[in-house]
Write a structure and sequence with these properties.
The chain is elongated, with a radius of gyration of 19 Å. It contains 9 helices and 6 strands; from the N terminus they run βββαααβαβαααβαα. It folds into 2 domains: 175 residues, Nucleotidyltransferase, domain 5, CATH 3.30.420.10; 38 residues, no CATH class. It is of the alpha/beta class and 234 residues long. It comes from Blautia hominis. InterPro entries: DnaQ, Ribonucl_H, RNaseH-like_sf, RNaseH_sf.
């Protein structure tokens, strides 16, 4: 069983790392089997949080209103991760979001990791679901705030330790870290035409600019334009 690692989880505005945004990162740094340091932070998205996401996570637009932007939070999280192995439940989902955000800001994020979902799919073929919630219920792991990043990360760390206790000796290969590989399409920067139109809209509507034009991607610019035209605030 690994004694030192980072367990992490994120909450997002949707399922696509190219189209949607991270709104919360939660992580714990484990050293010699004990939590040494925590990372818990909201990220202010460029667009409003959809109602269905608030329904799932409990995260409202008011909660992220005064949060830092991804340009500030992502580099801090990369520093927090150091050279550690990452552990997550369906880890490639979370990793892909962080990686594409990191790369869009000019950083690299190449990591090895362990996926507790992948382990559970092998050792718990009998269970009807291998979701984090179902596995926590199976092992009686208390998760006091499911679908909030830090608490899901903490539950994942407990799940990893529990499954390693029962199954690592029988299935050691399942618990070996491997390179995290995800095919992420990097969105190109916003075009001059998009930026000109976007800035005109902001000025006409009397809105406050809340994004960094130097890091805005073509997809993000398109969604911002659509949101303004449909009556949403930037």
């Amino acid at each position: 069983m690994l004694k030192s690692y980072i367990a992490f989880d994120i909450e997002t505005t949707g399922l696509s790392p190219e189209e949607n945004e991270i709104i919360e990162i939660g992580a714990l740094k484990v050293r010699d089997g004990k939590v040494q340091e925590r990372f818990m932070e909201f990220i202010k998205p460029k667009l409003s949080i959809p109602a269905n996401i608030t329904g799932i996570t409990g995260i409202t637009n008011e909660m992220v209103e005064n949060a830092r932007c991804r340009e500030e939070v992502i580099p801090d999280f990369l520093h927090f991760c150091e050279q550690d192995i990452l552990i997550g439940h369906n880890v490639l989902f979370d990793y892909s979001f962080v990686r594409i955000s990191a790369e869009s800001l000019g950083h690299t994020f190449e990591k090895d990791g362990i996926d507790t979902l992948k382990i559970a799919r092998t050792v718990h073929r009998d269970l009807p679901s291998r979701s984090l919630g179902e596995l926590c219920e199976h092992y009686r792991i208390n998760n006091s705030a499911a679908h909030r990043a830090y608490y899901d990360a903490l539950a994942t760390a407990k799940l990893y330790q529990t499954m390693a206790h029962y199954f690592e000796e029988k299935e050691p290969h399942l618990f070996e870290p491997s390179p995290l590989v995800c095919a992420v399409k990097k969105s190109p920067p916003a075009t001059k035409k998009q930026m000109d139109f976007l800035m005109r809209l902001i000025k006409q509507k009397g809105l406050k600019q809340t994004f960094n034009p130097d890091t805005l991607t073509r997809n993000e610019a398109s969604r911002l334009i659509d949101s303004i035209l449909s009556g949403q605030a930037v």
